[in-house]
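Duplicate of #3305? Posting structure anyway:
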């Protein structure tokens, strides 16, 4: 059964004529997503934050560095990659989420304003995320963090990139990661016939049509990419990765592939825990202003970071 608070939100969205993402051009979709999150997310936590420009593979790359107002450094660091199907979203849309992760974990958080599609197609986004991770590890003393206590996190497309970044860090011999928090990640190159696609691909925030729309913009065409940087389930080996917390919602077309990714990690010897938030749909993690379950999920992610990245 859909959560009662979520039911009320969905009814309000339907009454206001909220569009499917696939019905809008990218520019309008970005405005809609920004306005929607402004309505449903919680006000930001009281933490320090600063935007910085760092070298990236496509030129200067903007990051936002969050620092708790309590405690002493050097701190653990959680890199956060935002959701939005590689097409929408940004630092301001995820300011609430990242500030609360920082405040509740006691860790520094770096949010990455990676390049978006279709202006910058695959692999621009993942290249930016890995470059930001490398920069953070190399400049740890400058930003007051411990290079031996770094984790990655993200939701949706950002969850995909957190998973891929962990794979790249393993295969490229660093930076050494202690945690990955994957919030309803896209893990497969296509549906693979998952039941959750058929069950929840219509009537919720993320639809089958919108998934295809996002992927075509990012991948550059309708065909799936046979590249682990686009779909971490394509990896032959998921051993040697940092412990993973995978957060999913019941009414999410990506639910089944998130579970499969966690099961594959476990089978290959990587620690993984899956938490399913009953009654929740894709995108709920960013809705702490209206959903109690979202606040609990953010608390859980922050708790995982606190346990893994603080002494």
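Output from current build:
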């Amino acid at each position: 059964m859909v959560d009662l608070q979520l039911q009320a939100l969905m009814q309000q969205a339907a009454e206001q004529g909220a569009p499917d993402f696939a019905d809008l051009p990218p520019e309008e979709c970005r405005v809609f997503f920004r306005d929607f999150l402004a309505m449903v997310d919680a006000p930001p936590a009281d933490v320090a934050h600063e935007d910085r420009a760092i070298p990236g593979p496509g030129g200067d790359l903007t990051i936002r560095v969050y620092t708790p107002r309590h405690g002493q450094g050097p701190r653990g660091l959680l890199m956060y990659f935002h959701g939005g199907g590689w097409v929408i979203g940004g630092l301001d849309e995820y300011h609430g989420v990242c500030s609360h992760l920082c405040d509740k974990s006691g860790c520094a958080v770096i949010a990455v304003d990676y390049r978006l599609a279709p202006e910058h197609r695959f692999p621009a986004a993942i290249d930016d995320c890995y470059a930001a991770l490398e920069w953070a590890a190399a400049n740890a003393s400058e930003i007051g963090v411990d290079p031996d206590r770094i984790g990655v996190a993200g939701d949706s497309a950002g969850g995909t990139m957190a998973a891929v970044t962990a794979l790249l860090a393993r295969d490229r011999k660093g930076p050494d990661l202690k945690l990955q928090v994957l919030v309803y990640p896209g893990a497969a190159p296509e549906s693979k016939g998952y039941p959750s696609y058929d069950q929840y691909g219509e009537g919720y925030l993320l639809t089958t049509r919108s998934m295809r729309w996002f992927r075509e913009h990012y991948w550059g065409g309708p065909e799936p990419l046979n590249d682990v940087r686009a779909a971490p389930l394509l990896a032959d080996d998921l051993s040697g990765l940092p412990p993973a917390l995978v957060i999913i919602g019941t009414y999410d077309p990506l639910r089944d592939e998130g579970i499969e990714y966690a099961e594959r990690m476990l089978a290959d010897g990587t620690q993984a825990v899956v938490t399913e938030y009953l009654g929740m749909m894709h995108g709920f993690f960013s809705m702490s202003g209206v959903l109690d379950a979202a606040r609990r999920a953010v608390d859980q992610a922050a708790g995982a970071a606190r346990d893994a990245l603080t002494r």
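Confirmed duplicate; merging threads. The chain is about 40% helix and 20% strand. The CA atoms of residues 194 and 256 lie 6 Å apart.
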